[in-house]
Design a protein that fits this description.
This protein has 176 residues and is mainly alpha-helical. It contains 6 helices and no strands.
């Protein structure tokens, strides 16, 4: 009985650390992007800048925020946090944010998706950094919206996964 309560505490800590780690990763992204959006030179905007900003917000809000985070990443990350709570190991708990993102102890498909998306995101960050203002701010405004939506979505799904009764999302682990 003593060992089970220890694992339970380890599992709870791992689940919290996993979601807290994701929050720190996404929060850092939000903090780093905000200054570029804030300095958008509104006075020099012409109609196509406004159209590009609206397009960036609509596209990234839908593609990144809704389709990417809300429908796919967030429920899965929450399911993996719940799995970690129920099946803790020392390695999973130490690297809980990476576990929740699907970088290890995941199906082959999940690992391929996690590593591919991460590589693509890093390449896009490098490319967008080279854009001059206002274009960088326009792109970053859309990313800020999508990433903010994603962070809130992770929190909502985590609450459902850890405290709700009807949460049927696969954690995509080899044994699930």
């Amino acid at each position: 009985m003593e060992k089970k309560s220890g694992k339970s505490a380890l599992g709870k800590f791992g689940a919290v650390w996993g979601i807290l780690g994701l929050t720190l990763i996404f929060g850092r992204g939000l903090i780093c992007l905000y200054p570029y959006v804030e300095e958008l030179p509104e006075s020099t905007f012409v109609w196509f800048h406004w159209a590009a900003l609206a397009g960036s917000l609509l596209f990234m809000g839908y593609a990144e925020g809704y389709k990417g985070f809300h429908l796919k990443f967030s429920p899965r990350a929450a399911a993996r946090a719940r799995y970690l709570r129920d099946n803790p190991t020392l390695v999973r708990v130490i690297f809980a944010p990476l576990f929740c993102m699907g970088f290890f102890h995941a199906t082959r498909k999940r690992k391929i998706v996690a590593y591919s998306l991460t590589t693509m995101i890093v390449l896009l960050i490098v490319l967008v950094r080279e854009l001059p203002q206002p274009w960088r701010g326009i792109v970053d405004a859309g990313v800020l919206l999508g990433l903010g939506w994603g962070l809130v979505s992770v929190w909502i799904f985590t609450i459902k996964a850890l405290f709700g009764k009807n949460f049927d999302v696969s954690p995509e682990t080899p044994d699930a």
